[in-house]
Structure formats: structure tokens, C-alpha cells
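Backbone-to-sequence.
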């Protein structure tokens, strides 16, 4: 029987920058324990464990997969490695929280979801904003008719590199890099979250540097004359906003991926007369919310297929957008 007070023991597969943030979330989350860190360098793993509070370190990824005292793995490796290590983790009975994008391709994403399902382990990608209480509050007016019929979703996620970095996987297409998979993943996912379904067709346009999309704009057409649009890139100052517009009103959030002010996670509802109401969600750290949600899924002992299904859908749309931008034509989306 599932135990409601069971502590979920976590391991982290790799010492990427984002791993430090998730390590802190695991330490702060109720019912979670940071049991181990793995690196391909024993020295790096040991130093990382001391700095970030992991109980122990191991010098190979395989050693962490073999560890009997690990329940869940966080995988912050480059996207090109997600499929291999997620599938191997599933075969070792480990639940997997995998950094976004879920994979480098739709085919790999589907293989990952299938492997986790077949082995009875939970799979979820590392998009954090969906776990903050604000996301649930924002979805209510979208779903209950307060906006009228939802017709349009518009979003943007950008930041600007003052100097293009070296040795950055996001600038290597073979590793799963590019603005679309790194930043556009959030915008595409938010569009699917708001509309609750896949688009019928998509169109994309990108600016490339050495075959990597440095900026990307996309259109997603949904059934019933509904549309989503977004832009993302590494060449514009920080923007992370979302608007969901209906026939009666609109919802605006100027920091949907992460609150500018952690103590004031807010969004606005604008009616047709220009009146705006500010809504403020409870103050929570979204990384901690994500870890606690994932731990609770494990404790329940029943897989939640909502999360891998959403990840695979986002991957499918992103891949179609990439094909569109590279081929210069609208791409029809496979449904189901």
C-alpha cells in the first residue's frame, strides 16, 4: 500500500548548472531527500555533493542506476542524452524527472514515455511554472467561461546573450540545442495547456547561426478559428509573458515562466471595458512545488499519464514547427 509519509530518495544524474537549483528544491521540499549525485568524474561528484548537500556521490551514471536506495532520478543532461538515460533509468525501476525539452525528437520522447509506462515508473518533464499555485488559478477563468470563448493565446520567452558563449549545448543542434526547444518549449506548452488540445497545423520562422535557431517565431492553428502565436530567442532582453484572450475578456501574465517577485506571483484579468483586476497567488517556490508534486505521484503508487502525454504533445508540435521553418511551408499536425 502507498505510504503518505514515505520519504522519496532522489539522485541527480549529472552536475549541469540547473542541477544546483533542483538540488536546493529537493532539500527544501517536504518528503524528499537528496541521496546522491552522479558524475562521470568522481572528483567533480564529490565536490558537488559537499557544496549542494547530497548525502553521497558516485563517479559513474551506471552506479546511480544500480543504487537500491534511489527512488527517483532528476536528469539535467543535454537533450540528446535524455532518451538513453531515461529509458535506462526506467528499466532500473527509477521514476524520472527529466529536464525539458523531454527529448531531441518526437520519436525519442515517445520511446521514453513508453519505457516508463512499461516499467511502472512516473515520467515528467522539468517545466516548473505549471506546478506553482498560480498556474491552477490562471486556468480557472480559461476553463470556466470567464474569458468567453478562448480564441487566442500569445506568448514570448527571450533573453539576450551579450556575448555568444562557448561550449554551450544550446548552440549545438546535435545535442538538441536551439531557441525553440530551449525557450519555445514553454510557449508551445503554454498554448497546449490553455487550449487543451493539439493544433491542426503550424508555421514557423527562424534566424539561424551555424544551423541552430537563435530566434524563433511560430503560429499554431487550432480547430474552430483559434490560434496561438509566440516568439522566443537568445537575442532580445528578458521577456516571459503570456496572454489568453477570449470573446469577453483576457488574462495577462507578464512572468508566467517564473514570477519576477517570488512574493507576488500575479496575473491580471482585463474585461472588454478596460477594467483590470489583479490576482495574486500564494507565495511558493515553483521548483519546490514541482518536487513535492512529483513525490506525491510516486507515493500514490499510480502513474499519472497526464504529464508524459503533455510532454510528448509539446515535442510533436515543436518538431512540426522546426520542419516548417526549415522547409518554408505550413505543416499539418498528426493527431492522436
Amino acid at each position: 500500500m502507498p505510504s503518505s509519509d514515505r520519504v522519496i530518495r532522489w539522485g541527480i544524474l549529472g552536475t549541469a548548472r540547473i542541477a544546483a537549483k533542483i538540488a536546493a528544491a529537493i532539500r527544501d521540499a517536504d518528503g524528499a531527500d537528496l541521496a546522491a549525485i552522479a558524475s562521470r568524474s568522481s572528483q567533480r561528484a564529490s565536490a558537488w555533493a559537499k557544496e549542494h548537500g547530497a548525502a553521497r556521490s558516485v563517479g559513474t551514471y551506471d552506479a546511480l542506476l544500480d543504487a537500491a536506495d534511489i527512488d527517483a532520478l532528476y536528469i539535467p543532461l543535454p537533450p540528446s542524452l535524455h532518451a538513453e538515460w531515461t529509458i535506462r533509468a526506467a528499466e532500473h525501476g527509477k521514476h524520472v524527472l527529466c529536464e525539458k525539452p523531454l527529448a531531441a525528437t518526437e520519436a525519442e520522447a515517445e520511446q521514453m514515455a513508453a519505457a516508463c509506462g512499461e516499467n511502472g515508473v512516473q515520467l515528467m518533464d522539468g517545466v516548473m511554472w505549471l506546478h506553482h499555485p498560480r498556474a491552477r488559478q490562471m486556468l480557472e477563468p480559461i476553463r470556466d467561461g470567464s474569458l468567453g470563448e478562448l480564441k487566442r493565446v500569445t506568448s514570448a520567452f527571450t533573453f539576450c546573450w551579450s556575448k555568444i558563449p562557448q561550449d554551450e549545448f544550446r548552440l549545438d543542434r546535435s545535442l538538441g540545442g536551439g531557441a525553440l526547444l530551449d525557450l519555445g518549449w514553454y510557449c508551445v506548452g503554454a498554448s497546449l495547456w490553455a487550449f487543451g488540445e493539439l493544433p491542426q497545423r503550424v508555421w514557423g520562422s527562424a534566424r539561424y547561426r551555424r544551423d541552430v535557431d537563435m530566434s524563433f517565431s511560430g503560429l499554431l492553428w487550432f480547430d474552430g478559428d483559434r490560434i496561438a502565436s509566440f516568439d522566443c530567442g537568445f537575442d532580445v532582453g528578458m521577456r516571459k509573458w503570456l496572454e489568453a484572450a477570449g470573446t469577453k475578456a483576457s488574462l495577462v501574465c507578464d512572468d508566467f515562466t517564473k514570477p519576477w517577485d517570488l512574493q507576488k506571483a500575479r496575473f491580471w484579468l482585463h474585461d472588454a471595458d478596460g477594467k483590470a483586476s489583479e490576482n495574486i497567488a500564494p507565495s511558493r517556490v515553483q521548483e519546490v512545488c514541482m518536487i513535492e508534486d512529483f513525490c506525491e505521484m510516486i507515493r500514490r503508487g499510480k502513474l499519472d499519464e497526464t504529464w508524459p502525454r503533455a510532454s510528448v504533445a509539446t515535442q510533436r508540435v515543436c518538431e512540426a514547427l522546426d520542419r516548417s521553418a526549415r522547409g518554408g511551408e505550413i505543416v499539418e499536425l498528426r493527431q492522436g
